[in-house]
Design a protein that fits this description.
This protein is an alpha/beta fold. It has helices spanning 2-16, 20-30, 49-57, 70-82, 121-131, 149-171, 176-185, 190-200; strands spanning 39-43, 62-67, 89-93, 106-112, 132-143, 203-210, 215-221. It has one domain (19-147, 188-221): Vaccinia Virus protein VP39 (Rossmann fold, 3-Layer(aba) Sandwich), CATH 3.40.50. The protein starts with a helix and ends with a strand. Bound molecules: S-adenosylmethionine.
């Protein structure tokens, strides 16, 4: 599914989030507090927007992005080359549940709108914990359901009724943008995700909601 929608993925992100997705990624990357010259891993990197944002915020950092979809990685590679960042950003095809990196090999690890899609989410979190060094941070950016009753009503109407229609028309994929709200409904609450992160080995887990609670940024420390 992700490979099929890859060519229109960035355009639909901007359109369907009214441009907010860039700000959400910016906040998530800032939350890594990556040390000078640090190494960052972005899991489920898709078309590499998180890695490009990280390169912008941390000019000395070395960044790796992994995703199991080859077309997503191919598009990401083109963007990285166009930004002349191929010396600092490396992209690789790999599954989130079996990251091909040694223990403690990164200073921080991120996943943006990715964990929800990983079939074994808790295993994905354990892998993120394994590859980050002691004291390093994990940041999870993910959709959630707004807590405020009025805004939630309007948002859920948009998310379940409007977004799937626009997504179907513009992506050409019959179900990818119906899968999106369905998968958010199937994902734990912010409290539940914080508990999963603690179970995976992170401590001091906290989260904050953005844009009225459409998305949450969770941060934990190994
Ligand atoms: C919604 S996209 C998010 C992409 C990117 N992080 C962003 O911020 O736009 C989800 C990505 O997760 C990838 N993905 C899903 N399950 C995966 C898994 N088990 N291992 C690796 N990548 C996975 C998909 O190929 C897709 O590129």
């Amino acid at each position: 599914m992700f490979s099929a929608i890859a060519p229109r993925y960035d355009f639909l992100n901007r359109l369907l989030s009214a441009g907010r997705d860039r700000a959400w990624r910016r906040e998530a990357v800032a939350a890594t507090a990556l040390p000078q010259g640090g190494r960052l891993l972005d899991v489920c990197t898709g078309t590499a927007d998180m890695t490009l944002e990280a390169a912008r915020q941390y000019p000395e950092a070395r960044i790796v992005g992994v995703d199991f979809s080859r077309p997503m990685i191919a598009l990401g590679t083109t963007k990285v080359e166009r930004a002349r960042l191929a010396d600092r950003i490396q992209l690789q095809v790999a599954p989130a549940e079996a990251l091909p990196y040694p223990d403690a090999s990164f200073d921080a690890v991120t996943v943006a709108f990715g964990l929800r899609n990983v079939p074994n989410r808790r295993r994905g979190l354990r892998e993120m914990c394994r590859v980050v060094r002691a004291g390093g941070r994990a940041v999870v950016l993910e959709f959630t359901t707004p807590p405020g009753r009025l805004f939630r009503g309007v948002y859920l109407w948009y998310f379940h009724r409007v977004l799937p229609c626009i997504g179907r028309l513009l992506s050409g994929h019959p179900s990818a943008y119906s899968y999106l709200p369905a998968s958010v409904g199937d994902f734990p609450s912010p409290e539940g995700l914080a508990a999963w992160m603690r179970d995976a080995g992170f401590s001091g887990v906290s989260y904050r909601l953005l844009t009225g609670g459409i998305v949450a940024i969770h941060v934990g420390q190994k």
